[in-house]
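Quick illustration, no need to memorize.
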Amino acid sequence: MSTTVKERTENLEETFLSPYATFSKKSKGRKSKDEVCPFRTVYQVDRGRIVHSKSFRRLSHKTQVFIAPKGDHYRTRLTHSMEVTQIAKNLARALKLNEDLTEAIALAHDLGHTPFGHIGEKALNDVSECGFKHYEQSLRVVDKLEKFSKGLNLTYEVRDGILNHTRGQQPCTLEGQLVRICDRLAYINHDIDDALRANILKFSDFPKSVLDNLNLENGFKIDPFFESLIKNSNNGTLRMSSEMDFVFKELHSFMYEFVYTGSKAKYEDEKILDFIRFLYEYLLKVENKWPEDIKIIAAEEGAHRAVCDYVSGMTDRFAVNTFKDAFIPKAWSIA
């Protein structure tokens, strides 16, 4: 009896992957029964559904850290997701973990992020009766909001990795845990690059422990973190050496103090807080301006849940244009 392409891939996984990896054929499955693809494993199917989703495309116009930067080379939420994916896949290969599962989680982990980055997340959490956490919203996007409220019907392992990529309990798979680590590695890496480009930081600002261990002037090499993770991870546990873990924590604290909370890149944050509040409160009052899918959510779960979903799904520019339409007077003439 001949095997399918999918079955051959599953057999290769069992031959070449670590015994601690997550094997496609042992997935806990999907929330609802789905057609089985003969060519792709379940995690490859998930990856395709994520890449072809509307929420994934919208990430290209959502802020990472720098709001409306004047330049083409600053990161967006999409480029961040791609960099997380690149780093995580390389490490998954080195550690003999499931690259397809790793890639699917990495690509989808920020699908629920608001416009205007984490300050947009804070603003929406402050104003909405539902509260708001982007990792919970990312799961809601793939479970409920995509495909006209049908969701993407992803596997348990991908959904778990999305939900637990930043806070709360650890993901149930090593692949999910790896994405959680790589998310932080990626954003620290590219935010240093962007901060140096924007003249918010200079090399002499960094702590000595960081300068001694990382070649910042050569594009912030994160290879030492890679090497440490590969050398020190074993028996189903991901870890860096105590020295490199200390360096990373120093770097993380430094970035929060001098870039994420205390830099000129954040001078517009107060405006964003007011902007999101005005927009949210306005949309609550104008049901006739809601898209049809948002009206359906309102009927099922209430207006606050619907408006929270609507605002969080907006790109930066769509949110600005919606605000302009609502609050900025337009010129008119009598013909």
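The chain has a mean pLDDT of 90.
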